[in-house]
Known about the structure:
CATH architecture: Beta Complex
CATH topology: Metal Binding Protein, Guanine Nucleotide Exchange Factor, Chain A
Largest sheet: 6 strands, antiparallel
Radius of gyration: 14 Å
Shape: globular
Number of helices: 2
CATH superfamily: Peptide methionine sulfoxide reductase
Amino acid sequence: MSRMTEEDWKKKLTPEEYHVLREKGTDAPxxxxxxxxxxxxxxxxxxxxxxxxxxxxxxxxxxxxxxFDSSLKGNVILNEDTSHGMVRTxxxxxxxxxxxxxxxxxxxxxxxxxxxxINSTSLKFSGK
Length: 128
């Protein structure tokens, strides 16, 4: 994908998608279509289509957003986020650098102990 300008992104994405993916917005909790979605397949970046999370890593965290215990290796970047008076780890797509959500250390201890807390708005689902 060639480097898109923010104007290009504004044309490609809906205002809500642009706010979440490019302006680091957040879905309202318990509102997204993928929060309680457990079909088999792959979750991909809504902006560029890169595969991000397998349904095999999705779990019900009851936090209000889709949660995964791991991402596809190399397909996300983790950045320090000090916004809103907190220190968190931001999760972004490694291909287009769109904001996906945040990573926390309160996931299932029987797997990775990680919880990728991801906005439904930032995802598309590809059933397989």
